[in-house]
Amino acid sequence: MQKVKQTAIKARKRYCEPHFLFILIIVYVKAVLADDSGNVESNQDSKVQVTVEGGELLGFGSANPRTEDRFDAGEYTTYYGNALAVIRVTDANVVTVQAKTEDGSLVECRIPVI
After folding, report:
1. Which of 46, 64, 63 has its CA nearest to residue 103?
2. 27 beta partners
3. Does the N terminus or the C terminus of the chain have fewer Cβ atoms within 10 A?
4. Euclidean distance between CA atoms 102 and 98, whole angstroms
5. For 1, what's the count of Cα atoms within 13 Å in the CB-facing half-sphere?
6. Terminus-to-terminus CA distance in the chain, angstroms?
7. The whole model's pTM is what?
8. Is the separation of the CB atoms in 29 and 21 below 8 Å?
9. For residue 45, which of 66, 29, 14 has the smallest C-alpha distance?
10. pLDDT 10s digits, 60-91
11. Chain center to CA of 25
């Protein structure tokens, strides 16, 4: 973890110091449609719904250049079997990400925050 230097601003014998220290942690979680052997199903795209606990979903999308899906909706259609979620950590311990496909498959990923 990086140390953050706190500075004081001196102006006319008054001091201004930060009262809160915010550390921004961004997590990227890749959603992949794969078979039991781990091979990416690049010929079968599916709508995936993502929910986050311990963080805020900033965006979820794929590299599809022509889509009508919204990256801020929490639901997106994969592109060649791939999508990416961008999450801002709000809990200091763990972030839990759940991804659910159209066929009802559910995957949960727990990411410890160090």
Report:
1. 46
2. 87
3. N
4. 13
5. 9
6. 8
7. 0.75
8. no
9. 66
10. 999 899 999 998 899 999 999 999 999 999 87
11. 10
Burial letters 66-102, b for 16+ CB under 10 A, else e: eeeeebeeeebbbbbbbbbbbbebeeeeebebebbee
* Structure token digits, residue 54: 């311990």
Report the alpha-carbon angle 51-25-57, nearest 5. 20
Closest CA to 78 of 48, 100, 105, 56: 48
Measure the CA angle with vertex 107, ends 113 and 59; round to 5°.
Answer: 60
- Nearest CA among 28, 43, 3 for reference residue 83: 28
**Residue 48 has which token pair?**
């995936």
Query: Which two structure tokens, joined as six digits, stand for 39?
Result: 């091979």
Q: What letter would DSSP give residue 38?
A: S
Structure tokens at 76: 């997106």
